[in-house]
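Many introductory courses stop at the sequence. We go one step further.
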Amino acid sequence: MDMAYTWLILGIIVSLILLGFQFYSRRSLTIRRIVEIFLLSFLVFTVGIGSLWAFIGHAFFANQVASNIGWATGSPFQMEVAFTNLAFGVLGLLCFWIRGNFWTATVIGVSVFYLGAAIVHINNMLSISNYAIGNVGADLIVDILVPLMLIGLCVAHKIVEERAVRSAIKSLERSL
């Protein structure tokens, strides 16, 4: 299995395990909680740990990664990509402790980076016929799929949070 899918699948598995714990501990399992668990799992595992793994690849195995993508080896650009991944890895892990708009900012930043990478890979495929597995394989799919999932979950999270706040306000108003 390609490592690109590993972090996405790990995010799904962790989400399902956490949902199972919620269910078996008889805690209320609302749409709000389900969305929160999936979003947090993807931010911490898919983005956080996955980006740290990408940092290691680009920083310490740069020539191997470049060859896999079909790009020239020995470019200092690899270190720039490595540190970008390190930054998103740190942000993803911090999402465990910092919530709210920090999640939104992390989703926006990672999504811009991933979708930008997808555009570069597609352009590289079309302009110079680079069909290397690291350019148009699983990495390209993940570069598109992960941002779509993160954005969708982030929007859903904002919607269910807003509904919960409105419901709490209405409940408070009725009790006054």
